[in-house]
Amino acid sequence: MVYARDTHGSACAAIICRVINIAPSGGAPVSQAPPSARDADQSDARRDFSLRSVFGVAFAFISPIIALYAIFNLGVLTAGPSFWWAFPVVLAGQTLVALVFGELSSRWPEEGGVFAWARRLGGGGVGWVAGWGYSWTLVCLNAAAAFAASSFAIELLGLDSSSNVVRLALAAGFIVLATLVNCFDRRLLKAFIAVSISCEVIGSLYVGTVLLVFHRNNDFSSLVSGFSDGGSSFLTGPFLAAVALAGWALIGFESAADLAAEVRDPERSVPLAQIASLVLVAATVMYACAGLILAVPDWGAVTSGDVGDAIMDTISAEMGASLVTPIMVVVCIGFLAGIAAVSAALSRSVHAMATHRALPGAEWLSRHSVRDELPRNALVLTSVLTVALLIFSVWAGFYDVMISMSTGGFYIAFLIPVLALLWHRSRGLWQPGVFRLGRASLAVNVAAAIWLTFEVINISWPRDIGLAWYVEWGCLLMYGVLGVLGAIVYLSTTRGDVSTDAAATPQQANND
């Protein structure tokens, strides 16, 4: 792997830079690459994000708090203590994807990451499918995250937890606050995310360390109990389901590429931010998760479902009830930062599509604010859609179906540019940018495609979990609904304009 050093990196980023072979500061990469192609409208005037700050956005998007607290109960109910091993499996697969995305973002550091790469590699139609699926996945994700955050806010405020009206009001409040953080100024977003990351990391590492050192009630062998007791049936049943759940936890590193048009030296900063955020969040999650699993006082009560919140129950029992409130505050801050980061990525994806005339109301959506060039129209519209979708999904009773889309949609959107890049490589059309994987590039690309295909099937598979049929088939239903709706919008809006975009044709993509 070849890379040139970014002078804005933090200490952790510097360590990763050493691993991926750095050229001297300011020097050329070991193998010369063609200059990266950037859209003409992406000027340097709004490049306010450094490596550190765009890493912060990606870190907050993935979020150790959201990654662990939102799925821990489901994970341990599904696979018991051995749920922990799902995180290393997903980390290995997602690292392959992050490496491929590193090459793509270094070659084309453009706004809208997934959409931009798919458009460059496969043409406007392929790009539109990736962007449409990815954008709606982010809407579903933010709605699900806000509703999950509301449950912690209710406990913190001592409100009626049985009222959906109260939960929806709090969820809408999270979304509105996140939108305001994004709309005011990039400096406010960066400052808020920096504070939230400090809270999340300190809170996660503190809880994990105290539980591991002073409150370990279970032996380390309990982490492999599922494999030793269940054998192959556990591996192909509960553990595969756990891998699907953990797949929801380690997404969002690609958000650094969504903001590439606003990043200084994006050819180097964006790939590193994607990889570093994924690895460091995963390490934090696995550490805190191990501490929680080994500290659970009564696994029988947890796996039987008698414990409503295994995390807070364990913290309260082992560290004292007085610590629950501060942890709740940290959790709410983490959720708010994550929602703000998702909103930032979503607005840039929608703005990028509008810039290429790929959405209804493209002229209005593609406008920037005059002073700081923020896509406020896209921010406001996507936030309104998120609140509307959340209210409708809870009212209509298909909230669980919407959650399904917030996982599977990511992997389908990721798979499109990964497969398109593999096709380019097979035809000898690919020319890497500054960040490159060298001889390993083809193998990594193939492995990433295999991983994503596997996880799409694993997440979408209609497992018998004792719920309504439309919940068990939720992913496939959402794919179908968005596919039909997307076809209507595409045919009525673009009328072929996107697919004939010269910048999107495969042969010209490498000549830009």
What does this structure look like?
- The chain has helices spanning 11-19, 51-62, 64-69, 72-79, 86-107, 113-122, 124-157, 164-184, 186-214, 225-236, 238-249, 255-258, 266-295, 299-303, 310-319, 324-355, 362-365, 376-396, 399-426, 441-460, 469-472, 474-493, 506-509; strands at residues 3-4, 22-23.
- By secondary structure, the protein is mainly α.
- Strand 1, helix 1 and strand 2 (22-23) form a beta-alpha-beta unit.
- The two termini are 23 Å apart.
Return Rg in Å.
22 Å
Structure summary, number of beta strands: 2
Shape: globular
User: How are the strands ordered across the major sheet?
Assistant: 1-2
Structural class comes to: mainly alpha
Helical coverage, percent range: 55-70%
Output the helix-strand order: EHEHHHHHHHHHHHHHHHHHHHHHH
Give the DSSP E fraction (strand runs of 2 or more residues).
under 5%
Give the mean pLDDT.
85
Largest sheet, in brief, is: 2 strands, parallel
Counting H and I runs of at least 4 residues, what is the number of helices?
A: 23
Are there runs of 5+ residues with pLDDT below 50, and where?
1-33, 40-45, 499-512
How far apart, in Å, are the first and last alpha carbons?
23 Å
